[in-house]
């Protein structure tokens, strides 16, 4: 019986294991060092905030693994002998594989700041990071979070939830404006400030000061030289593939492990998926490393098909993602760059409460809709995707916009205001034809 | 803000302390006039025994009085055994039956009570209810000024809401079940029904553990792994004690009942009973904690509308209207309650009350039948069982208001789900069989069916399901096992609604494509212990008979993945996913 070993029990590795088990009977082993069981990394913040316990972040009960004959080994892989298909573990044992899936995830970036290895300094990626935060939280007077992005805001919210004052140092001139268009970026920046987080825009971390005992006690702002006293420094300037330990091998590695359309590496029977994989040929408009949950899940499924003898090409479909900025939810469907190109028109509507907005981009000449950016309003994934895939005309989309609305019952519907905004800029007289409702949406999707 | 809230908390604690302490204050002074007894013979016998015991016209502390008076009643009972029964007089007009004891004790206590509470009930009402409401509101109202959004910070850091370790929880549950069975045995002096219950319970245990192979599936997520929240345990014990006194020892809470007398007189014109006290407390709690719910979900219209709805139905339908009906000489009737939750609807006393009690009675009887014959299938088909469970029902109302801080304590394990299905459907069968027996007995004027005495079946259902399960475990276990323990494991009406919802309804929770990040918020905050995430992460819609449609899973989801909807009735395909996650080959099914 062939034996597939998966290194890493994150969403990518776990998805691969589940799908291999669905498709075949072969032996599956997952080796991972961080935790015995798969847990949801995206929920780390909720453990610290007291919304959930670690147990609640495990998507499967502990008996699930043995029931599905997926062997779990909690150990660290120290070396891979690709020639002999052999792994060496920290516990000094070795283990043989037929197929190897590398699902190693990421690690937090550190850019060589002075003091970055002091006590009381840490990123937010692993469970151990959470323990570190917990350890220093008691009696903490202030925390400084360095780096905007999605993990930075989460860390700020975490401290804030425990009434610990937080300063955020963000390099960009507005929060996350390398990804978000200016209006949305400004809106989120204001929301962060309103939530009593001391957001400093357009500044970088200078150095982290040592209190003399090896603990961080302050940071300096590079631009102004200002010193901010703090008991904890969070480093959240992005993540990069966790592949350093494989660099000396024959495996082809650039930033991540280079894989082809079937997620195979340059070494036969070795695959890489999830955060650590770098696509040789990303789809047009897509990055070669997309370190997010959904891509890890899709890659896991794809690789399983390949290993079980039914190879399919990795196709992440139309881009989608979501996040939450303190109290504002964010969803995106399709291609929504911070700065759209000349050929594109952007329809933007914002609620007067400054916490809800909708942006729809479309091709000016043809009217084809290209994407949706949603803040504080939920839209249906399938409906938006179908519109984008079918290159539906913006006016068709607007008239039927209610089909996409996914907000809870009794929530106010703003589709009419969005249509009005379009009419206002174009001088047209479109009417909203569809209100929110499941039956119509189902009919649309099936038809 | 913080100061106001702390003052509120302090006032609330003071109110609870006073409320507890007041049970022990005041005296009883039994006089010739306030000796209970439905016949002169009973009265005389009790008076004689009281005299012999030397308690007539003496002030006795109220708790001591209950035990002394118990002895008096026993003596009177014994004395009457030897009294010859004259012609034309019923046996039980002379002898004192066991079933009279509780009523006589309550009556004696109520009539002979004198003390600060009886002298100034309004003052005590203000010091307890008033202070608790004021404290509660001071604590709650400032929350309206917080930024709207999900407010679950620190729930698992709080000793009140953190839950129990699995083994301590099992200990509590086991002790409560055994305690109830032993108490049932002592109360009815009958071993048969406690034993039957034990055997059925053991059988369900066997089915879940061995037939369903749940033995090796030790649940990991059901209870707190590290610490037990002792404040929660304390709250649970207090609630359990409250229900035991309320149901079976009302004489001990006479001061509470006397305190609410003035309110009862204003409403129905009569004296308060333990049930009136309970109704008033229940309503006050639903309103105050309902306001808390409104602060918590300021941003969520669905939650606000739903909370207003349960507050309204509790206040108007369960509390005010029935009392006003009584004032108008109509039968006491709760227009929103229905069989089989209202298990005594078909009991002969109720049928007689309604059908022959005059006035609106026959209409009420008809209405009660209409509700469960037409109302349940129709509304559940259109909207799912939520129309009742989280919009109208009183038990649901309490669970959604007072119970909201404890919703995360529901057990999400597969094992719990297996227990749930056996137990709740078992109760439904018990309710139906019991009711059929009652109707049969009523129509054919029998008291025995096969080997079963119908009165005993009724009594055991009332004791075990109606009181022990619905009350003691149902509400007492809020801080121990979550706020819907009764609704999930016990309520026969929920079982019935659930069957309709599962097999013939437009309701489902839609999953938004592939947006789920498996974070677990939805499962954690599902009060029915549904592992919502296990569906959402596969892109599958959620169609579960137990879902009460509270909408909290959709509210807490940080990625906007879930939506409660009523769509076209697409039958079986409600459970199919619209989109597999990536490769649309075959159906994605849970591997578990
Ligand atoms: C705080 C936070 C919030 C996030 N929120 C979102 C979000 O909202 N939406 C979203 O799309 N994405 C989010 N992400 C990103 C998402 O979590 C990651 O993309 C995803 O978890 C990556 O999964 P993975 O399986 O590739 O790797 P991982 O989850 O990192 O799993 C890899 C595992 O392999 C183990 N491992 C590595 N090397 C070895 C070795 N040599 N031996 C043994 N074990 C090893 C690691 O310890 C780790 O446990 C978030 C990330 C973080 C940190
Ligand atoms: S599934 Fe959602 S709506 Fe249904 S009971 Fe659970 S939390 Fe409430
Ligand atoms: S809360 Fe939302 S994102 Fe989290 S597991 Fe549930 S459905 Fe998925």
Q: Describe it for me?
A:
The complex is a heterodimer of chains A (447) and B (592). Chain A is globular and about 75 Å long. In chain A, strand 14 (216-221) and strand 15 (227-229) form a beta hairpin. In chain A, helix 1 packs parallel to helix 7. Chain A has three domains: 3-107 and 240-307, FAD/NAD(P)-binding domain (3-Layer(bba) Sandwich); 121-237, FAD/NAD(P)-binding domain (3-Layer(bba) Sandwich); 320-446, Enolase-like, domain 1. By secondary structure, chain A is an alpha/beta fold. Chain A contains eleven helices and 25 strands. Chain B has 592 residues and is mostly helical. Chain B contains 26 helices and seven strands. Chain B has helices spanning 2-21, 40-53, 62-81, 91-94, 101-112, 116-119, 121-140, 166-188, 192-211, 230-248, 254-259, 261-267, 274-296, 301-327, 348-356, 361-383, 386-389, 394-401, 414-444, 454-473, 478-481, 485-489, 492-503, 521-525, 532-536, 552-556; strands at residues 27-29, 59-61, 113-114, 448-449, 452-453, 507-511, 562-566. In chain B, the strands form three sheets. Chain B has a three-stranded antiparallel β-sheet with strand order 2-1-3. In chain B, strands 4-5 form a two-stranded antiparallel ribbon. In chain B, 46% of the residues are buried. One iron/sulfur cluster binds at residues 516-522, 532-533, 536-537, 557, 559, 561-562 of chain B.
Distance between the termini of chain B: 48 Å
Radius of gyration of chain B from CA coordinates: 26 Å
Shape summary of chain B? globular
Ions, cofactors and other ligands present here are:
flavin-adenine dinucleotide, iron/sulfur cluster
Report the CATH architecture of the largest domain in chain A.
3-Layer(bba) Sandwich
Q: What ranges of chain B have pLDDT less than 50 throughout 5 or more consecutive residues? A: 578-592
Would you identify the regions of chain A where 5 or more consecutive residues have pLDDT less than 50? Answer: none
Which structural category fits the helices and strands of chain B?
mainly alpha
For the report, how would you describe the main beta sheet of chain B?
A: 3 strands, antiparallel
